Amino acid sequence: MLGFLKRRRAAFSADSPPPCTPDGMRIYAIGDIHGRCDLLRLLQDRIRADAERHPGKRWVVIYLGDYVDRGSESREVLEQLCMRPLVGFDSFHLLGNHEQALLGFMRNPESFSNWLTYGGLATLGSYGVGATSSGAPGALKRMARELSMAMPETHLLFLERLEIHRRFGDYLFVHAGIRPDVPIEAQSLDDLLWIREDFLRYTKLYPLFVVHGHHIQDEPDIRTNRIGIDTGAFATGCLTSLVLDGEERSFIDTLQEWPEVSGDFRESPYPTENSGIGQN
């Protein structure tokens, strides 16, 4: 057995069957990377090793967004995702709020100047752009212009083609979450990329079981209607993948050990703090 793979089964209500993936499909969902290409490469290696222990399956990897900002290797992360995909896997890449802000800054730097305050400076630095937190219009336009010149066309096309959400079987994969009591086809882009409290506090079942990132926790946040897998990789060194195969769930991460979790996850209290790492 691989030492970094720990299996956990969440409790389900008796009147609701557990969500399931399509037959023959093994899914790996990867949480927020945030400029940590070192962790991305390590996690991809571990995912590949796990998948090879399950031949005959259709291997799917879904990246939940927030590839850039905060860590020092945003350019390297995009290059890895664009040019070195996992061989033998069907890969899907979702849009995160940080990619939305990055594209917005490139098109209209004055309107998206706040991107610099929550990670954008690190992304600019990774592309060799002289970055400053100055909000002066001239400085903002210069940085946006230099970023546009420094960014390879493959990176830009990758960012522009990111998906908003993706469904497989009973699972919906999205960056931040969904608005409760709103049909999935009627969800707003703002909610899908940014929603927090209304989504996190909702305890009823959603039309589909939601797998998401965006909300930093010390460990995967397992509920009866959703699982969050943003474990703050840029600060903690822990990048997490949720593995789904039929009704089975497990986790692979970039730490050598993962604390065992016991108890009924239905009783898990709503987290009021996000481990002091900061907003995502």
Short description:
The two termini are 34 Å apart.
Layout: helices, strands, pairs:
Blueprint: E1 5-7, E2 25-30, H1 37-51, E3 58-63, H2 74-83, E4 89-93, H3 97-107, H4 120-126, H5 137-150, H6 153-160, E5 165-168, E6 171-174, H7 189-194, H8 197-200, E7 209-212, E8 221-222, E9 226-228, H9 233-236, E10 240-245, E11 248-253
Parallel strand pairs: 2-3, 3-4, 6-7, 7-9
Antiparallel strand pairs: 1-11, 2-10, 5-6, 8-9, 10-11
Spatial order of the strands forming the largest sheet: 1-11-10-2-3-4
Beta-strand percent range: 15-25%
Largest sheet: 6 strands, mixed
Classified in CATH, the superfamily is: Metallo-dependent phosphatases
CATH topology: Purple Acid Phosphatase, chain A, domain 2
If classified by CATH, what would the architecture be?
4-Layer Sandwich
Q: Cα distance, first to last residue?
A: 34 Å
Gyration radius, to the nearest Å?
Answer: 19 Å
- CATH structural class: Alpha Beta
The low-confidence parts are 1-14, 258-279
What class would the helix/strand composition place it in?
alpha/beta
- State the helix count: 9
> Domains counted in the coordinates: how many?
1
Question: Averaging pLDDT over every residue, what do you get?
Answer: 88
